[in-house]
């Protein structure tokens, strides 16, 4: 404690000249004060923000909740009372009927045959390209990255006719392999763009130390860089599986046989020429959407980590 010297030489404790905190302020660790009115404004703004987010989440989920509600009601009840009415009966009969009538197991397998290899191939090819673009400097580095980014903006509908003729000439028409390759080609640009930016944020000292120890390019890629990009790969894997699994455009254009179609085409089996049971279609749509929901739940932690990595840098 500091002291002041009096005339007689005795030391007297220094008096605290600072007055007490005003009732309208709060102390902080740095010695600064925050007005209570400002704190109340921050709390009010946070409440409004959370209310808006909850409202938008409800609006976003409303179609899914409505489809779920419709799928649990018999068609006879909705035909009599309308879709906007309180239910008398809730049952899972529509799900059992959709599962068997639409032959969902067969089409689920077709979608997995297309989506799983396509996701693996696009992540592997994109990670290789992103590693070269992010960790090596050469003349056409930026030009190649711009090419991948620009190719990702190309509308798919523009090249339907030349791509259709190309697949006919190569023998890839009406082949699930052709669907896999076209999805890999169109998803490469986005994945390379994301992974290259992610890899640029990694310290270059890691690969430089590996080079000093004699590690080659493949070892730097597989044992040093790739383990550090797991969050980004998980986020991209989740997005790519959802996009490729839900794709119906390329299957409609490049597949002829119904037995090779993905599960998104199975919903057409529930539509008649003169009558469509919308309750049954809603149940089938919920079943078709379940795999993407399961994938997101399993990879949710890595997905969020991949999206937020580097957001505070």
Automatic annotation (TrEMBL):
Q: Which UniProt keywords apply?
A: Cell membrane, Membrane, Transmembrane, Transmembrane helix, Transport
Q: Which PROSITE patterns match?
A: ABC_TM1 (PS50928)
**Is Ribosomal protein there in the keyword field?**
no
Q: Which PANTHER family match?
A: ABC TRANSPORTER PERMEASE PROTEIN MG189-RELATED-RELATED
Q: Spans of biased composition, class Polar residues?
A: 25-36
Topology with respect to the bilayer: Multi-pass membrane protein
List localization entries.
Answer: Cell membrane
Indicate whether Transmembrane appears among the record's keywords. yes
In this protein, which residues make up the domain named ABC transmembrane type-1? 108-299
So what family is this one in?
A: Belongs to the binding-protein-dependent transport system permease family.
Q: What is its main location?
A: membrane
Name the source's superkingdom. Answer: Bacteria
Name this polypeptide is given:
Carbohydrate ABC transporter permease
Q: Where is this region: Disordered?
A: 1-36
- The transmembrane segments are 47-69, 107-133, 140-164, 176-195, 232-255, 280-299
